[in-house]
């Protein structure tokens, strides 16, 4: 974590609590050293900021490539040490993303991912993509599941005085079985389902979406 990042968190974490009503549960589950992949549900643009404010380590997020095209956002995203995900990119683009993710983890840092691939407009957990699960299995890196509850209430301007309650629910780190070589669709679905089930368990039933009970 750079000095400017430490200053940012020191200033904006307490400042955020003036406007937002949020609490963190399970902070004791966060590993303070070694590489780690955070996987969380994604509902609102505030989600990555809330995770950053809740975490004692800097999170290097994957961000959609479109954000890097903005002249205003580009320098901020680079400062945050995020890197692009090409959702519709070529095989070369996707390989570059994997190499950047591997570089983060090889340095013993924290990688942040929203495995649904995009925000869920209804607030319910949608079907996850396999990238985080496959990466964790191939590299033997633990996953830390997080359930974010309440950011679906941030609609319009009324949230400023209603201050909906937000909970950042941090689960226990876990590892998926180690794999080597190319995975078939069935194997990827099994790994992804296991990962998403851990996230769903941290959400109320009405937020679990396709992973409610045995929904997968």
Descriptive labels:
alpha/beta; 36% helix; Glycerol-3-phosphate (1)-acyltransferase; 7 strands; seven-stranded mixed beta sheet
Structural class: alpha/beta
Q: What is the general shape? A: globular
- What is the CATH domain class? Alpha Beta
Q: Would you identify the regions where 5 or more consecutive residues have pLDDT less than 50?
A: none
Tell me the CATH architecture. 3-Layer(aba) Sandwich
Question: Strands across the major sheet, in which order?
Answer: 1-7-6-2-5-3-4
What fraction of residues sit in β-strands?
A: 15-25%
Distance between the termini: 37 Å
Total strands: the figure is 7
Helix content percent band: 25-40%
Can you describe this structure?
The protein is α/β, with parallel strands linked by helices and 216 residues long. The chain has a single domain, classed as Glycerol-3-phosphate (1)-acyltransferase. 36% of the residues lie in helices and 17% in strands. The protein has 7 helices and 7 strands; from the N terminus they run H-E-E-H-E-H-E-H-E-H-E-H-E-H. It has a 7-stranded mixed beta sheet with strand order 1-7-6-2-5-3-4, with helices on both faces. Helix 3 links the parallel strand 3 and strand 4. Helix 5 packs across helix 7. It is globular, with a radius of gyration of 17 Å. The mean pLDDT is 86.
Compile the SSE list and pairings.
Blueprint: H1 3-19, E1 21-25, E2 36-40, H2 47-54, E3 59-64, H3 73-79, E4 83-85, H4 91-106, E5 110-113, H5 131-139, E6 143-149, H6 159-162, E7 165-170, H7 185-200
């Amino acid at each position: 974590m750079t000095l400017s990042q430490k200053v940012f968190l020191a200033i904006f974490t307490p400042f955020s609590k003036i406007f937002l009503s949020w609490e963190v549960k399970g902070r004791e589950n966060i590993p303070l050293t070694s590489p780690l992949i955070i996987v969380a549900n994604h509902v609102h643009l505030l989600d990555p900021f809330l995770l950053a404010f809740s975490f004692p380590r800097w999170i290097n997020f994957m961000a959609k490539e479109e954000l890097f095209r903005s002249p205003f956002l580009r320098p901020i995203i680079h400062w945050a040490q995020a890197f692009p995900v090409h959702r519709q990119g070529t095989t070369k683009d996707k390989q570059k993303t994997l190499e950047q993710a591997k570089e983060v983890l090889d340095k013993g840092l924290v990688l942040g991912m929203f495995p649904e691939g995009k925000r869920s407009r209804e607030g319910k957990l949608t079907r996850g993509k396999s990238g985080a699960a496959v990466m964790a299995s191939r590299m033997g890196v633990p996953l830390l599941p997080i359930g974010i509850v309440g950011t679906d209430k941030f609609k319009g301007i009324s949230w400023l005085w209603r201050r909906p309650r937000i909970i950042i629910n941090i689960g226990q780190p876990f590892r998926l079985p180690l794999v080597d070589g190319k995975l078939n669709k069935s194997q990827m679905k099994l790994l992804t389902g296991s990962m998403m089930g851990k996230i769903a368990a941290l959400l109320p039933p009405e937020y679990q979406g396709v992973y409610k009970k045995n929904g997968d």
